[in-house]
Amino acid sequence: QVQLVESGGGSVQPGGSLRLSCVASGRISSIYDMAWHRQVPGFERELVAEITRGGTTNYAAAVKGRFTISRDNAKGAVYLQMNSLKSEDAAKYYCTVEGREWSDDGVPSVYRSWGQGTQVTVSS
Questions:
Q1: Distances (CA, A) of 13 to 21, 65, 83, 84
Q2: 61-94, pLDDT tens digit by residue?
Q3: What is the rounded distance in angstroms from the CA atom of residue 55 to the CA atom of residue 86?
């Protein structure tokens, strides 16, 4: 498994931009897919964007065209560039990693790791 540390959150005005970073440590070679989720108190946790090891991306409809997810496999890092921020984007953002590991007897297993989250506030 890996450990994740997010950074880059903060407070911005509507229309502003932020770039979130998430850096993994540990067995980064085991990482397959990486994603960003967000959650507002009283609401369900929402998948914002995801990116596969091969670079295929998927975005929530609410952020498509405004957010861009990218990754650096050598660093075990994933980023979320957020532009044209709206008040609805305010939430705690979490980095998520899915990976694969094999036991000594060759049995594969899937793991998921979550970061502690970074707060994004959008206010005028």
A1: 20, 19, 11, 9
A2: 999 999 999 999 999 999 999 999 999 999 999 9
A3: 27
